[in-house]
Design a protein that fits this description.
The structure is a homodimer.
Chain A lengths: L3 E8 L2 E8 L2 E5 L1 E4 L11 H6 L5 E4 H6 L3 H6 L3 H5 L5 E4 L2 H6 L2 E5 L4 E4 L6 E4 L1 H11 L3 E3 L11 H22 L6 E6 L5 H14 L3 E4 L8 H11 L9 E3 L5 H9 L4 E4 L1 H8 L1 E4 L2 E4 L19 H4 L3 H9 L3 H27 L3 H12 L2
Parallel strand pairs in A: 4-14, 5-6, 6-10, 10-11, 11-12, 12-13, 13-14
Antiparallel strand pairs in A: 1-2, 2-3, 7-8, 8-9, 15-16
Chain lengths: 368, 368
């Protein structure tokens, strides 16, 4: 069964769509929980599926270092290895080469760096990254790109972008033809939107199954991020999925959907969950706060998830104070369920043609 | 609905029974997972129930220190607080006063000690312990006892036992009359079985709903533990549940069942789970071992639990090496499911009158 993206509705800039894959549909706008090391931290696959998540993201860089490609390939890829039957997107490792590794050297061929785990020397190239992602058996594969650190040096960004485009071309050749999977290009260009436009044009000339904005959500103010999305998103192929990588807060998601984005991933729900921070329709709760010792309300009765409904804030505060693992599980589980509840309600509002009302009603309260 | 114990069958010393409570039945011989701080570590209540566990144990000492009785009582007791609907047994704190606390001073009144968490001075007495257990709303309540450390000083053990019996009497008075709950006496006496017999006789004269052996499984060789059980168990009221506290390995359970014991609790399945140690019908697996990187078999296909069947040893080894929380969850979950599978098969063998065959077939392999 070939993978297929359909644009179902547009409403004030926001888009309703669906990616159909042999492993299930992905309704867009979609949020992908992050399962870096082939596990969405602290959750079983049943719990992830119960949240309504239709796709997760795993990290090529981390999996290449541990446990290595061979052990996953032997299990029939990531789905068999981690017992997850729904679609999986893998990033290419480009971002982690910049953010995690040491002594990185970039050449035309690829990136040489030291593993952040044991210092071992590693080489990644477009061909190697795509080969790993094929062995991981990802349903959506990302091109290998260079992610330069934040800089105002336009020449540096331009030459990096040029390299990323050559790497995107090599990624596409290595990917070959496979109508059951998708290969996404990644738009770079730093803070220079003219470079981003050029990058998108040249990627579109090569031709990909979807287009991502990379190098955002790296600490810039939200309005800058929105501005970039607003300028670039309308230029992206209307009939292909549009993805902002590594984003974001509920407010980021609402604002990017408004500007035409279809896909998101972020560690925020799970990372926050492990520190006792819960996202709710009424705002953010720091469950470590002693005021919750007297709060017998459920975590968030507006979210249809056992973790949201069946455990009191009083109990969760107790679990956090005792460093109990169950605190990480329950709050991460709720947070992902909340993010999926948000995405579901966004999709319904686009379907019904009242996304702007929904946005106006919730943006301020959720932009925490 | 009054709580009730029925002895259903006896087979070569082993007993099949059932405790009926308003919160559900407990088939005996029964294993109780330990939920020290109102959570069986790393598991949701759904996962605990899926293992076939019909009762769990929580710790009065820990809960009294954190979060304190008031926050649990307000939630309607432990069941509401932790969202667990099945029966709960609470120990009295006596064992933790000995094993965890600092600067303990025992008087006729009770025990004064410093909290192991923050050094705060705490006082526990029979009246306070039973009052806490009532507020926790435990279905099975344990008398407050003094647990002397291991010693060959018989006079010391004798006077401690005398005190524990006076405390048991006071515990019973404080417990009062409540036919929906059970109060168990605890037989002390250290390594002196004549003292243990005397203790049991005097507790039986006071009259309890069940009898426990305390001060075992504290590091003594298994055959000594079995010898004590063998001598004392037949003297215990035949029509009341018999409980060995804090035990044990699968071999300990088999051996104690053979000697007439009905109930057990132990942290072993969860504590081992968090270190990567799995109990299986074929022996103990240290899943950290690098040999499991090449082992694509499920953890234990003989145990009917998602954690046992759906994840490979290769994957679990990867999760442990990455310190992923999911490793603790899955291996703890499997271990409890394995313990419950063992208890279920023990009960079936007693029912069918072939417990001795079952024992002979499994004792050596499981006595790891």
């Amino acid at each position: 069964m070939p993978v297929k993206f359909s644009l179902l509705n547009e409403d004030n800039g926001a888009r309703l769509g669906r990616i159909e894959t042999k492993r299930g549909n992905i309704d867009t706008p979609a949020f992908m929980p992050v399962g870096t090391a082939a596990t969405v931290k602290a959750l079983t696959v049943d719990q992830i599926e119960q949240t309504g998540s239709q796709i997760i993201l795993c990290n090529t860089y981390h999996l290449y270092l541990r446990p290595g490609t061979e052990r996953i390939e032997r299990a029939g890829g990531l789905h068999g290895f981690m017992n997850f039957s729904k679609p999986i997107l893998t990033d290419s490792g480009g971002f982690q080469v910049m953010s995690l590794s040491k002594n990185t050297k970039i050449s035309e061929d690829g990136a040489t760096f030291n593993s952040h785990i044991d210092g071992k020397k590693i080489f990644l190239s477009p061909e190697i990254s795509i080969d790993i992602q094929k062995k991981l058996n990802a349903d959506i594969v990302m091109v290998f790109d260079e992610c330069p650190e934040y800089t105002k040096d336009k020449d540096r960004i331009k030459s990096s972008m040029d390299l990323s485009i050559r790497w995107a071309q090599r990624s596409k050749i290595e990917f070959g033809t496979n109508n059951e999977k998708m290969l996404f290009g990644i738009v770079q260009g730093g803070i220079f939107n003219d470079l981003r436009k050029e990058c998108l044009e040249r990627l579109t000339d090569i031709g990909f199954d979807g287009y991502a904005l990379g190098g955002l959500a790296v600490g810039e103010p939200q309005d800058e991020m929105f501005k970039t999305v607003e300028e670039i998103s309308p230029l992206m192929d209307k009939y292909k999925p549009r993805y902002v990588m590594g984003t974001g807060t509920p407010g980021d998601l609402l604002g990017a959907v408004k500007r035409g984005i279809d896909m998101f991933d972020c560690v925020l729900p799970t990372r926050s969950g492990r520190t006792g921070l819960a996202f709710t329709w009424d705002g953010k709760l720091n469950l470590r706060n002693s005021k919750y010792t007297n709060d017998d309300k459920p975590l968030d009765q507006n979210v249809d998830c056992p973790a949201s409904q069946l455990y009191s804030r009083n109990y969760l505060n107790h679990l956090i104070n005792c460093n109990e693992i169950l605190a990480s599980t329950l709050i991460s589980w709720h947070n992902i369920a909340f993010f999926q509840d948000l995405m579901r309600k966004i999709r319904i509002s686009i379907k019904n043609g009242n996304f702007q009302d929904f946005y106006n009603q919730h943006f301020e309260k959720l932009n925490y």
